[in-house]
Amino acid sequence: MLSIFSNITSSRTNFKLPLKHHTTLQLNSKLLILPNELLAEICENLSPQDLFSLSSVCKELRNILWSDKSIITQQIWRNSRHKFYPSLKSPPLIGMSEQQYLWLTVLAKKCQFCDESDVNLLKKYWEFQIICCETCLNKRMESHHTLLTKYNIPEDVLSTCLCLGDKGYLLSNIKTAQIEYSKAMDKDNWVTHKQLEVIAQKCRIISILLDEFHSDHKPMINFDFINENGSE
């Protein structure tokens, strides 16, 4: 995060902020007092990369531009996507914010677990909403058979999570599903709802992959998903 106070001296005598830091401080102050609707208008010509850079300027701007609850914030990122990446027409996955969507689509450049940045070693896994190298992925996955026999995960729970073919499931997703399943009062209804959500997610993933394929930028597309789910 950019520190606008990094060059302030500790002297008790009068001091001046360096010009660019003083300008940044003034800019931040003016932006933060603007109504959200006006901020949205100011940001409408900013690319996703610009929005990400702006969100890194200070904590207050990050809280505004990285909020996944604010309707205005989601509108800002959605408008940026439509303007700068018009081929990415599909909406985000269920439960995914516009920021997360753009991060996975065009902003992420390294493995989110080990910081590997070689594009030849990275792959995007929309079913898990992550971008990583194969080594890190394998550490975080387990097969369907092992989850059933070794860890005694109910089939009902597994059926509510997206998988990567024979490679299996992301363990963090299984853990979350287990917790939700244990808390569900009507487990049958919960399972049915989640199974329908999985189907909807698969449809959105295929739509996103097709958008990426036809876009101008060069995404790290995981065609394994289409190959593994196309025959279902």
List keywords for this structure.
mainly alpha, disordered N terminus, two-stranded antiparallel sheet, 232 residues, 5% strand, globular
Structure description:
By secondary structure, this protein is mainly α. It has 2 domains: 66 residues, no CATH class; 111 residues, no CATH class. Helix content is 53%, strand content 5%. The protein has 12 helices and 4 strands. Strands 1-2 form a two-stranded antiparallel ribbon. A hairpin with a 4-residue loop joins strand 1 and strand 2. The longest helix has 27 residues. The protein is globular, with a radius of gyration of 22 Å. The termini are far apart.
What's the mean pLDDT score?
A: 82
How would you characterize the largest beta sheet? Answer: 2 strands, antiparallel
| Rg, Å, rounded | 22 Å
Question: What is the spatial order of strands in the main beta sheet?
Answer: 1-2
Oligomer: single chain
* Unreliable segments of 5+ consecutive residues: 1-28
Number of discrete domains? 2
Tally of separate helices: 12
The structural class is mainly alpha
Our estimate of the beta-strand percent is 5-15%
Q: Give the terminus-to-terminus CA distance.
A: 46 Å
Organism: Funneliformis caledonium
InterPro entries: F-box-like_dom_sf, F-box_dom
Domain F-box: 28-80
Pfam families: F-box (PF00646)
